[in-house]
Amino acid sequence: MKLSKNIEEIRSEFPILSIKVYGKPLIYLDNGATTQKPEQVIRVMEELYRTANANVHRGVHRLSDMVSERYEAARETVRAFINAPKREEIIFTAGTTASINAIAFSFGERFVSEGDEILISGMEHHANIVPWQMLCERKSAKLRVIPFSDEGVLDLEAYRSLLTDRTRIVAVTHVSNVLGTVNPVKEIVAEAHRHGIPVLVDGAQGIQHGIVDVTDIGCDFYVFSGHKVYGPNGIGVLYGKENLLNEIPPYQGGGDMVANVTFEKTTYNELPFKFEAGTTNFTGAIGLATALDYLTSLGREAVAAREQDLLRQATEGLLSVSGIRIYGTAPQKVSVISFLPGTIHQYDAGMILDKMGIAVRTGSHCAQPLMERYGISGNIRASIAFYNTEEEIEALVKGIKRVTEMFA
Amino acid sequence: MNINQIQDQIIEDFALFGDWMERYEYLIDLGRSLAPFDVAHKTPDFLIEGCQSKVWLYPSLTDGVVTFTAESDALITRGIIALLIRVFSGRTPDEILGADIYFIERIGLRENLSPTRSNGLLAMMKQMRLYALAYKSKREQA
User: Fold this and answer.
1) Is residue B23 predicted with pLDDT exceeding 80?
2) Is A345's CB within 8 Å of B74's CB?
3) Which residues in chain A are closer than 8 Å to B21, comparing Cβ atoms?
4) pLDDT computed for residue B51 by the predictor
5) In whole numbers, what is the pLDDT of chain B averaged over residues?
6) In which residue ranges of chain A is CATH 3.40.640.10 found?
């Protein structure tokens, strides 16, 4: 599997990759936080505001028609990208967090009551913990947590025993944002479905690393953010199975989501519009579709293969530094590598790397329960994208060596 | 020496360093030599929680002068704490409240005090002033 372009060409399509910080070339290894945008995405956003800006689904005029068509075409691009059965099942939101909050509210209103249980995993991002906690508080329900091993692998036996007749929904991450673990979501879904329990998969860290097929996974909801998959900020996706989306109430009221409004009674619009109240981020949606097309044109399997090569190099390189500890050694993982060099504090290491032009994430990565599981306050995370180079990985390893010398 | 003279002295110290690496190596040394912090004070009451690093700050007042001791889990943060203590500790509440802190920016460490860094340092400076204010109002009431 080969990328359709060589790495120099790819890098030249991402303008930010050639900037300098503190006079040094930027080495961007914080792709788990947000990814950089190719020219194609930047250009389409600009082009929309210059030549095609009108509100979608509103006017009879040509401009509104044109942009509405492009917005709906973007929905089709997303549908095809994740292999969802129907375009009505693709709802545009503000991002992963917004998508999860929407389901926690709407699904919760319809299906969760006192004494019920919500099942999440111990490696969730705060965005897949807090909305469920809020739901539990509202409904006097209980939050249950699937444990995981030191390697960062979910305990499926424990998972099975945690599925009870009170479990109303399972919400798990596709890929851990800290450990990089790819969870066996297909198996998790099959097991829950045996009990008639729906599953939400948080795809914020899964969507950008290869093929995601929601039909194959079988999940009831799959959510992700545009900005983590080379698209714009402020746009995200909520995929939901049609029957479930029809059954749950909308979480926001406003324009476009209604069929008929009187002061006595309002009827809701059909899917997907029922869940898209107000003027949607149509420029973001079109930008996101452009980003997905870009990935498809590069070759998604080739993207994943390149990232695996870089992950292997980073893992071997970092392990050659004495005293290094890597958090997350699951057999199936994406190009995310969390670590601590000896007893050196993550903030100290991050400060020095920053001065070398190397951008990594330090801290708890919005996953404090996970950090607590390992007995640490945080760590350093290098998250690698296909546009990173072998030289950049080498620079990271050298940087960490320098850090360990400075703090020795 | 007054607060500004101490700040100027720190700026002079840092002017000796050629590049950022030397500045940070010096900060790390300062961090290592920070006066020990009484473990009895390492409690949630004296903790200033940052997302990136934690800071503990303990104040006391003797003969109208405030003494601060502090601690952090990160060494660079400790180094900056050492500088802040050099400036603020051993001062009267009025001196602390009236101080204009300019040395951090002048020695090129401004990013360490950015609110987005969330390393506890900005909150620590604020807390030092709050303690000074509390001591001052207590004295005025007495």
Assistant:
1) yes
2) yes
3) 355
4) 66
5) 90
6) 43-296
B81-137 pLDDT, tens per residue?
Answer: 999 999 999 999 999 999 999 998 888 887 766 666 666 777 888 899 999 999 999
Cβ within 8 Å, pair B74-A352: no
Mutation for A interface: B27, B32, B52, most A CBs within 10 A: B52
Average pLDDT over residues A73-93: 98
> In the predicted model, is pLDDT for residue A355 greater than 80?
yes
Q: What mean pLDDT do residues A305-334 have?
A: 97
In this predicted structure, what is the pLDDT of residue A153?
98
Quick check: B20 and A346 CB within 8 A?
Answer: no
| pLDDT above 80 for B49 | no
Question: Mean per-residue pLDDT for A271-293?
Answer: 96
Active site amino acids of B: 51
CB within 8 Å of A243: residues ≥ 6 apart: none
Please give the average per-residue pLDDT across B64-80, as a whole number.
Answer: 93
Residue B50 scores a pLDDT above 80: no
As a CATH number, domain B3-141 is 3.90.1010.10
Choose among B20, B24, B76: nearest Cβ to A347.
B76
Q: Which residues of B touch A347 (CB under 8 A)?
A: 52-53, 74, 76-77, 119
Q: From B28, which residue of chain A is nearest by alpha-carbon distance?
A: A407
Residues of chain B above pLDDT 90, percent: 65
Q: Which residues of A are designated catalytic? A: 366
Instruction: For chain B, give every domain's residue range.
Output: 3-141
Cβ neighbors of A264 (< 8 A, separation 6 or more) are none
What residues does CATH 3.90.1150.10 cover in chain A? 7-30+300-406
Mark yes or no for CB contact A345/B51 under 8 Å.
no
pLDDT value, residue A379 = 96
Question: What's the pLDDT at A255?
Answer: 87
Nearest chain A CA: its distance from B76 CA (Å): 6
Are A216 and A83 spatial neighbours (Cβ–Cβ below 8 Å)? yes
Quote the minimal CA–CA distance from A372 to chain B in Å: 14
Q: What is the ipTM of this complex?
A: 0.87
Rounded Cα–Cα distance for residues A191 and A199 (Å): 10
Fold that domain A7-30+300-406 belongs to in CATH: Aspartate Aminotransferase, domain 1 (3.90.1150)
Residues of chain B whose beta carbon is less than 8 angstroms from a beta carbon of chain A are 20-21, 24-25, 28, 51-54, 73-77, 112, 119
**Given an 8 Å threshold on Cβ–Cβ distance, is B53 in contact with A351?**
no
Would you state the pLDDT for residue A60? 84
- Class of the CATH-defined domain A43-296: alpha beta
